Amino acid sequence: MKSKLNKIIRQWRSLLILAPTVAGLVIIGNYLGLFQLLEWATLDQFFRLRPRESVDSRIVIVTVNESDITYTNQWPISDAVLTKLINKLKAQQPKAIGLDIYRDLPVPPGNAELVKLFAETPNLIGVEKVVGNTVAPPPTLSKLGQVGISDLVLDSDGKVRRGLLSVRTDQGKTKLSLGTKLALMYLESRGIKLQMIDAKNKILGLGKAKFVPFTGNEGGYIRANSGGYQILLNYRGSLNNFQTISLEDVLSDRIPPDMMRERIVLIGVTGSSFNDLFFTPYSANPFGSPKLTPGVVIHANLTSQILSAALDGRPFIKYWSEPSEIFWVLVWSFIGATGSRKLLLAQQFINKFTWKWVTFTIFILVAGGSLVGGSYLAFLASWWLPVISPLTALITSAIAIAGYHALELQRQKTDLEILLETATAHYDTVTAELEYKAEETAREGERKLAQFLEAVPIGVAVVDGNGKIYYLNDAAQQLLGKGVIPDSTIEEFTELYQLYLAGTSQLYPYEKLPIVRALKGESFSVDDLEIHLENKIIPLESWATPIYNKSEQITYALLVFRDITERKKAEAERIKLTEQLLALNLSYSRFVPHQFLELLNKESIIDVQLGDQVQKEMSVLFSDIRDFTTLSESMTPAENFKFINDYLSRMEPEIIDNQGFIDKYIGDAIMALFSGEADNAVKAGIAMLNALNEFNQERQSMGNLPIKIGIGINTGTMMLGVVGGRSRMDTTVVSDAVNLASRLEGLTKNYEVPLLISHNTFLALNDANAYDIRLIDKVKVKGKSEMVTVYEVFDADPLEIKQAKLLTKTGFEQAVLLYNLGRFEQAAAIFAKCLSVNPHDKVAHIYLQRCLEQRQRSRGAGVQGCRGVEVSRCMGVEGFQGPRRQGEVD
């Protein structure tokens, strides 16, 4: 047995040593980044060779080149020309318009018209640059949140192969790229929204697409910068793969009918004289200068990639894991070494030196071509497989075997010449000496191989070509629980050595055993084997490969297996720990909102430290149930908690749905924060009142009294941070703006209205005319000298009352102005008219009472005898009750 094994080792030792060695060196070189540029160049060539994809009909590019600048006679193009261009595009009703031209400064003439157009075009997205030499966004579009970043990710060779979906600025803001912003706007119009699939790994879902962020080692990349949220660009193509129309054609009304309708329109420069051109995989030009791609085309490709993935299921560029790439290099190293060895030892090439090396060269070309061709076919299916590193392993191992073969022939030739010279005089002595040396060498080789195999910490088994078990090393015998059983065959292997399918009591299928597959000519591996011994079960990982003789017949199969118990335990513990962490993170998020952590620029609750703080422009909302103390006294403690939780569960979704989060519950009161637009806070307040109406209907149907709430909203600069001590910390918001919001909520009781906002919030609204708002009063906040203007938002009022307030809004606000000017007689008359239309207007009642009191003070006895309800009757209005004068807000 040992002599046969020694023979096998001798025959294949060059391959078993050189192939893994070459593969290891190539893998090290790949880790050091030696092949990165060549892998990129191969990927670029695959892009250029790939059949041209169809034009994306959902995108239109309005190009601006040198002839367009000549036509407009100005660069940068003026605000007036840009206004005219966008108006003509708007006329065809596109889904979204992307302006890939910086507009941080006005370009006269026509700036006022352009600013107005920006404010009136909700589907227009401008650009800014946030990385490196920054460029500010158009101020109007920035305020409206209609800005995307134009930054592109360049590889070290200057080419753009990755798409940037978003970045996180130093201020903690997440900003989307222009292509992402346009794609999401288009998809949202179809009801498709971005979803978080795996928060830990930042995997996002969008329609049929699943986004996995670039980490820096995908495909041919080695430790690349993975800042922001990046993906590999699966280019649709160059400018020719998109519908285009020149700026001159648009301005000259040469636009085909409905060319822009329901489409995404990108406006950008494409001329060679502009500084917005980049190298891409399509830049190579063997017959001239490299072809540069305009930035607007790259943004269009990213937009098209997102749309095609979400709507059509077009795949992203996929890649193998690092272990798979290592295995791939090892396979091609063995292919090169095995093929080279078989060719050089083939009988038909003996004494045919030229044909031998010609055939060797053809083998290298065919094998290398198969590798490259197979990788290209995989790329057509959107797989980016390593090419340069396995090709290097293939060629190097083949040449190494050839070199070894040449040195071996030279050594044998030299030895033969010495033997022949010596044999003529000392034939018998030489023969005996040679036989002794050969036997000694064989015995030494057998001893070394046996020592090597016995020292290997994994199980090794050898089966001959007839399926009989030939050899088991010590590690294999310990794992299997027994040694070689005489006359046993591979058909009995599973039963003799108790091999089972992992996790079952079923013997492992004979035809799936790696050693069986190896005897059929396959290299095969599995990790779902188990050995069932008397007192334990051992999970195994096993792989096998065939061994051929010179006649290309399988003489042996080599089987290697190892115990993976610890690996299985580690995997199970990792999964359990991951589940525990996810559950713990979910629990923490119920107590500390993740939005608060994001504002503090923290990844998770464990990163929070005492004293962390950030200053932010935000809106704060306070709400409280009216007369809750009286209501709670009529309920048991259990009923109190049930009522509060039922009420809060109705309010919470309305705040979250409007991009806010609840900072804290204070009994029945709610304090919520909104880091985005002030409109979100106002919309949340209106939604809470509408939800309250539904809640009251349910309460009344069960015989309970309806409840009322008051809501106060203010906008301003706030300090968010962490306070407390070592044992107990809490997140909080500190600001005069918070105090004012609380005071406004208290004022709702005085004016008997449900929703009040400050002038800070009113001025921060994108369009105040989108809401039903009226001026209420100017009040002095306790502890501050300046007056605060207060507005009522009555969108959620009952329809009859809301319509009455809308009818009297102009007169009411005119009367408030007259009151503040001290013209109380005129103000009182108008307030009386308002009350004749809307007798339930509590604020008008209050002002009427104030007017009468002021008139009484000024005239001394003009309203003698009018008190309470009687005062109202004196002015022709009944039912008045309320505060008597203006005062401080406590």
Could you please describe the fold and organization of this structure?
By secondary structure, the protein is an alpha/beta fold. Helices cover 47% and strands 20% of the residues. It has 26 helices and 31 strands. Strands 23, 24, 25, 26, 27, 28, 29, 30 and 31 form a nine-stranded mixed β-sheet that branches. Strand 21 and strand 22 form a beta hairpin. The longest helix has 68 residues, at 388-455. The chain is elongated. The N and C termini lie far apart (100 Å). Mean pLDDT is 83; it is low at 423-427 and 861-890. Residues 445-481 form the PAS domain.
Q: How far apart lie the N and C ends?
A: 100 Å
Nearest-angstrom radius of gyration? 40 Å
Oligomeric state as shown: single chain
Q: How much of the polypeptide forms β-strand, as a percent range?
A: 15-25%
Please tell me what the overall shape is: elongated
Category by helix and strand content:
alpha/beta
In short:
With 890 residues, the chain is of the alpha/beta class.
SSE blueprint and pairings:
Elements: H1 2-31, H2 36-49, E1 56-64, H3 66-72, H4 79-90, E2 96-99, H5 111-119, E3 124-128, H6 139-144, E4 147-149, E5 162-168, E6 174-176, H7 178-188, E7 195-198, E8 203-206, E9 209-211, E10 229-232, E11 242-246, H8 247-251, E12 264-269, E13 277-278, E14 293-294, H9 295-312, E15 318-319, H10 322-345, H11 353-380, E16 383-384, H12 388-455, E17 459-464, E18 469-472, H13 474-480, H14 493-496, E19 499-501, H15 514-519, E20 524-532, E21 537-548, E22 554-563, H16 565-591, H17 594-599, E23 613-625, H18 628-633, H19 637-657, E24 661-666, E25 669-674, H20 678-701, E26 709-724, E27 729-734, H21 736-751, E28 755-758, H22 759-764, E29 773-781, E30 787-793, H23 799-820, H24 824-837, H25 842-859, H26 869-874, E31 888-889
Parallel strand pairs: 1-11, 1-12, 2-3, 2-12, 3-4, 15-16, 26-28, 29-31
Antiparallel strand pairs: 5-6, 5-10, 7-8, 8-9, 13-14, 17-18, 17-22, 19-20, 20-21, 21-22, 23-25, 23-26, 24-25, 26-27, 28-30, 29-30
